[in-house]
Structures are given as structure tokens and as C-alpha cells.
Amino acid sequence: MDATALADALTRLRRAHGQLGGVISMIENADDCERVLTQLAAVSKAIDRAGFKIISTGLRHCQAATERGEQPPISAERLEKLFLALS
Description:
Blueprint: H1 7-28, H2 33-67, H3 76-86
Helix pairs in contact: 1-2, 2-3
């Protein structure tokens, strides 16, 4: 898939990467449990949204290939399984 089409997902993953580093530091420094869990939830949400963005982009990519009369790089059934694995 095209990295340009996935720029939003990459941004989310980079942000989650930084947040995860922060969560690790918070745990190492024995930070407040509520703050740690709040940040961990934010990391999890960012990763989930990146995954859904990738699935969404894949669906559009496959639909465009089908409309051009080309074989999509991945079947709709496989994309559905991947989507369900994220949810």
C-alpha cells in the first residue's frame, strides 16, 4: 500500500510510539496508577485508530482496483477477517 495514503495512520502510530515510551517511564518512576492507565488507554486508542485507518484505506484501494477491472491485492473476505481481528 502507498505510504502517502497511510500518512494519517503513520502519524497516529508515531504518536502512540511516543506515548508508550511515556507510559513506560511513568511505570518505571512509580507514577500514579490512574495517570498510567489513562495514558495507556490513549496509546491503545491511537493504535486501534491507526489499524482501522489502514483497513479503510485497503478497502478503498481494493474497490478502486475492482472498478478498474483489476484483481484487488487482497480479497474482501481477508480484509473483513483483518478488520474483525482489530475489533
